[in-house]
Specification:
nucleotidyltransferase, alpha/beta, globular, seven-stranded mixed beta sheet, Threonylcarbamoyl-AMP synthase, binds magnesium ion, binds threonylcarbamoyladenylate, single chain, eleven-stranded mixed beta sheet
Length: 507
Amino acid sequence: MRGTICANILTLTTQFKRLHLPQLTPILHRHHHTITTKIARPKSTAVPLMAPATTTSTTMETRILKVKVDDSNIQVLGHWKEESAEHRDGSKTKTSNLNSWEVPTTSENEEILSPIREAAHHLRTTDIPVAFPTETVYGLGADATRSAAVKGIYAAKGRPSDNPLIVHVCDLSMLRSFISPSFSSAGDEEDPIPAIYHPLISRFWPGPLTILLPNPSPSLLAPEVTAGLPTFGCRMPASALARSLIKLANAPLAAPSANASTKPSPTAAQHVLDDLRGRIALILDGGSCSVGVESTVVDGLCSPPVVLRPGGVSLEEIRECKGWEGVEKAYRDQAEVGGKTAPRAPGMKYKHYSPKARVVLYEAEGGRREVPRADVRGAVEAAGEEEGKGNVKSVAIIRTGRWPVAGGLRSQGLDDVAAKDSGDVAERFAVREGQWLDEDGTTVLARLLEINLGNDVKGVAHGLFAALRELDRRGADVIFVEGVSDGDDIAAAVMNRLRKAASDIRI
Ligand code: TXA
Ligand code: MG
């Protein structure tokens, strides 16, 4: 990669040796970030592999605590402390505005704050994680400084501790205090947050952007957070509710998405309940997540800086920031791996973001104006063979702009059905249900479900995971998805998640 040298590649190599990891392949050597994403699996820190959420006997009562906030009363949750952040040369930086997030100790709006206080108390006093909303997806949070609490996340999710977790902070003073415990914002010490990140922090924080920082040694972070890596991912969520929870918990929160391992990320409290009922005690319900896909993960510790995961902040926005003009993509989508024209064999994938139904994705560049009928027939026949003939199969369509109603399949009785039990989901998209008919309109070939996410890509991101979950709930056997044009905007995140969810990618 044009002489890319990373300052910490040596550290990393040493780290890998220490952990007795397999020999790195040449392709992984090209870039340490690829190494980071591919080989973040040190055995030494792994807790025993957890059984999937559905096969465990662990049960406890799971309560949803509704936080009654909306745009009109959001200021009740807290505010940024006003500080004059002048440097010795008289300059001011906007990032210092994010120095201190304050939550009122008592408030006439205790009714709104008390569920957050209860959840924070739970985080401080138990090792059971709490699910909470962020602007991207719901997270499953635990005190990032306590090993026992972080292990609780893996136990609840049913995921092995081989993947580093993102650390969520409420403000910059919290971040600085654990990367450099002696740092004082009043003094003229150098900011412990590397300068490369200042333009990003000032533009995108609080928000859906995760940055990689060197993990100090010794570190206050529990080793389970970083999975043995010399860096840790950190973000300050845009959600005031999330920031107030972190503030009241008085600790940075390590939090992966609050889904059961392999499932689509949760964007409503109900999704968390569906996956983790009986495995956690509390879910803070702050309504549906505005962004709907996870944060963008970037690494600015090497040159050129890279995007490790596309997400809520787009590549084109990052590129506009000083020092990030040459940012490169360090993730590979399945479609690029096999070449855009190579369809992927079904079943040949590590499951991620996957509903129970099989997902068949059509890349936008194929320019299909409707779902190919032969593909739907094939899928219905295959589903019939798997489960025994006789019962009517359920076919679902998710469309995003070009495809007509029902993806162009001949249908009857296609009526709106409420997206009940899914909280705010019903407000975002209509779910329609009817029958798929053969060409003469005489025979019912399958039950038909369809969701139109619309042609605004932000709307698609917002509703995507909820749509996959809704179709699962309604018993879809196979979901045909109309892909969106993969640009440098949030469409990159949408397609990245869809390609991971799909067992078939077609053009
Ligand atoms: O929007 C989000 O980021 C959500 C919400 C809850 O904040 N969280 C989330 O966490 O998506 P999770 O665990 O599902 O994904 C964390 C991602 C993974 O891709 C992981 O590999 C990457 O961040 N990551 C975290 N720390 C890293 C590190 N030190 N080096 C490389 N990648 C890291
Ligand atoms: Mg996740």
